[in-house]
Amino acid sequence: MKKLMTGNEAFAYGAYLAGVRVGAAYPGTPSSEILANYAKYPGVFAEWSPNEKVSLDVAIGASYAGTRAMSTMKHVGLNVAADSLFYAVYTGLKAGLVIVCADDPNMHSSQNEQDNRNYAKFAKCPMIEPSDSEEAKQFVGLALDMSEQFDTPVIVRSVTRLSHSSTPVEVTDQEPPPPPEELPAYERNAQQFVMVPANARRRHPVVEERLKQLAEFADSTPINYIEPGDSKLGIVSAGVSYHYAREVFPDATFLKLGMVYPLPEKLIRKFADQVETIVVVEELDPFLEEHLKLMGLEVRGKDIFPILGEFSPSLVRSCAVEAGLIEAPEAPPEIKSSLDRPMRPPMLCPGCGHRALFHVLREAGVVVTGDIGCYTLAFAPPLSAMHTTGCMGASIGVAHGIDKAGVKDDVVAVLGDSTFLHSGVHPIIDVLYNQGSSTTIISDNNATAMTGFQEHPGTGKTIQGRETKVVDPEKLVRGIGYEKVDICDPYDIDKMEEILQDHLKSEEPSVIIARHPCVLSTREKHTPPEVDPEICINCGICLDIACSPLVQEEDHVRIDTLLCNGCGLCVKVCPQEAIIEK
Amino acid sequence: MKNIDFLMAGVGGQGTILASNILAEVGLQLGYDVKKAEVHGMAQRGGQVDSHIRWGEKGYSPLVEENNADYMIGFEMLEAARFPHFLKAHSLALVNDYRINPPLVNLGKATYPSKKEIETLILERADKVLWIEGTGIAKNLGNPAMVGVVMLGALSTLIGGDREAWLDVVGRMVPQKFVELNK
Q: Mutation test of the interface with chain A: which of B25, B45, B143, choosing the one with the most A Cβ atoms within 10 A?
């Protein structure tokens, strides 16, 4: 039977069928739904780890213990987990270990568009790349088999268009292999698993030899294959780009690569002998193209297709036409009228606690070093209250650096609760240890809201719905040694302002926990307030809080009651007292 | 088997993703190879949501190619106005007669185009724009969030296919308490 599944659902299904019994991840678009779906299968252990490095270490440990394991993450998550990836490639494993990692060409929801195929080469770790959901399901199982055959972790690469697209998947009655009836003893082998230099030196040649064997495997695996066609044009492609290329070059000869590292050199040469011109169709970096060029082949690729952004059939076709590879298709008439269509950038939701906090920060005129989460949206006008954002956990260290360099301005770091537990704990130790004076604000909404309200160590629940200990950020920072710690609901804007000023004046490093639960998560809603058109002077001050239900009409402001959450922040900021609570 | 490409456009929270899931599922029931693509992530924060759904004998790309869509289903007028270049000649647009102001319009810094302007733009490609009181009908049925099913209902009468297949899929995919409303 066929069922429509997103790539992420199919990765989870494939992992379940292949007998993965431990799965760990930190959520990150476009990868989050892999573990969320996997966690629902019977007989598996799944966890939201505090960050990607922890998730990979957990999966490595499970594999050392003889259990098939999986760690999933978005592309930048592998930066966090890279240290663990590199050692696991050296140590090898006991049971299959698969890392499913999703790139985000076009940065739909990311800070960069790094091409993680480079990690495969860098870490000397094999990588395979499915092109649709059926392959996503199959490749997870294949990765685990490869992992066990070659004693190495295997990365399965996804991209946004695979993770979030749906295509039919064959579902079977097949059950995963049962767990062992008795717990196995842990096999102790320090020479393989303790990477002190003497052991690591013995392991490096094993890694190099393994890569040679994997290259031979690449030449024989059925996931790399030639699709015969016209010999004039040979297309090399992998992943979702293969499907775009298939639409655009229906008659060409294709080399479809399921394995992108190491590459099948014999198969590539066989393909090259069959075609007159070789064109590589790949998103982001010229990863395949460079390899083919190093093999001495004449290849076209990035001279035709862009290195930036995401591909689409339209883009591949227009580039191919421009390069003279195909004729321009018959097109419908050009659209002549031009219409100004204002964009619809994402905004903080009506009722969001972050808005109240950033209103106070903007009014105080402080420099805000920011972080990754919904609250990053506060950088945009009219809130305009965030001045740096780089990666998860960067806010605190950056604020400390600015503090040590010395500027006239007051500087605060702002990050969310989930981000704080992901990578904010070490930098907050640094501020204390190295005698900083900066203030860190944890904007605590009790959720990993940006990626879909996943649980985290501060919420008291696991991914599989079990009640658990709550990691309280207040106790944590007091335990580290912070003495100046305050908690405030940012909706109490006068108190928030007072606490902020007190912390800014203080020379002591300090923490403010601005706590207001995510309204999307709690579904809290109140009666919308009303604008008295007689009192409203249309000054527009309320509009500066960037709340979408506030609409500026010709002579007064109106509240769209369908969108309004009734939080009352606009009531508090109106200097005319023209917005009246109901 | 004729290939049919659909493009859906709306604003986060309007139910565009559920509607595109239903449309993809109906295609599968009718025996097509189905592909569907969408980007979500920021959608719940009032951003744009667009979904590509393709029914065909054998599909490759999950994304619809520009100049090739047979139908555009706009859940919101301005969102519909962003995608006419995806439509082929002699295509059809179904647009919910409903306006959600982007923040810049609310702030008085941009103008929302008129319904007439939007229609003129879409008609450069489409043969017809069918304006549907989707949100109004859904409200009358008791739930404004069901606009997606109203739009699909209108679409189903145009494409045809087995009425039971549509009802069956809606029955399976929409929360039970809304199913009766949807019939």
A: B45
Say what the pLDDT of residue B165 is.
Answer: 83
Asked if A546's CB is within 8 angstroms of B45's CB, the reply is no
Residue B28 C-alpha, separation from nearest chain A C-alpha, in angstroms: 8
CATH architecture of the domain formed by A530-580: 2-Layer Sandwich (3.30)
CB contact, 8 Å: A1 with chain B?
no
Residues of B with CB below 8 A from A2's CB?
28
Burial (CB count within 10 angstroms: exposed 0-12, middle 13-18, buried 19+), residue A365: exposed
Task: Give me the pLDDT at residue B38, please.
Answer: 86
**Per-domain boundaries in chain A:** 2-219, 224-322, 353-522, 530-580
Distance (Å, whole) CA A471 – CA A363: 32
Q: What CATH number is given for A353-522 in this structure?
A: 3.40.50.970
3-state secondary structure of A563: coil
d(CA B11, nearest CA chain A) in Å: 9
Can you give the three-state secondary structure of A176-221, one letter per residue?
A: CCCCCCCCCCCCCCHHHHCCCHHHHHHHHHHHHHHHHHHHHHHHHC
Q: Which of residues 168-227 of A touch B (CB under 8 A)?
A: 168
Interface of A with B in 292-351 (CB under 8 A): 312-314, 317, 329, 331-333, 335-337, 339-349
Which residues of chain B are under the pLDDT cut of 50? 181-183
Give pLDDT, residue A177: 92
Do B121 and A551 lie within an 8 Å CB cutoff?
A: no
Q: Please give the interface size between A and B, counted as residue pairs whose CB atoms are below 8 Å apart.
A: 158
H/E stretch holding B79: helix B77-80
Q: A253 with A119: CB under 8 angstroms?
A: no
Instruction: Please state the ipTM of this predicted complex.
Output: 0.93
User: Which residue, A166, A165, A167, A159, is CA-closest to A29?
Assistant: A159
Q: Are A553 and B109 in contact (CB under 8 A)?
A: no
- What is A224-322's CATH topology? Rossmann fold (3.40.50)
pLDDT at A548: 86
Question: How many CA atoms lie less than 13 Å away from A555 in the CB half-sphere?
Answer: 4
By CA distance, what is A316's nearest residue in B? B65
Q: Is A414 on the interface with B (CB under 8 A)?
A: no
Ranges of chain A with pLDDT below 70? none
- Whether A2-219 shares its CATH topology with A224-322 is answered yes
Total domains in the fold of chain B = 1
Name the residue among A29, A344, A560 with its Cβ closest to that of B11. A344
Domain of B39 in residue numbering reads as: 4-182
Q: What is the pLDDT of residue A9?
A: 98
Token representation of residue A544 = 């500066």
Phi, psi of B141 (to 5 degrees): -75, -10
Architecture of domain A2-219: 3-Layer(aba) Sandwich (3.40)
Residues of A in contact with B63 (CB under 8 A): 161, 244, 312-314
Phi, psi of A210 (to 5 degrees): -60, -40
pLDDT value at residue A386: 98
CATH number for the domain spanning B92: value is: 3.40.920.10
* pLDDT at residue B39, rounded to an integer: 67
Ranges of H-type helices in A406-492? 417-423, 425-433, 473-480
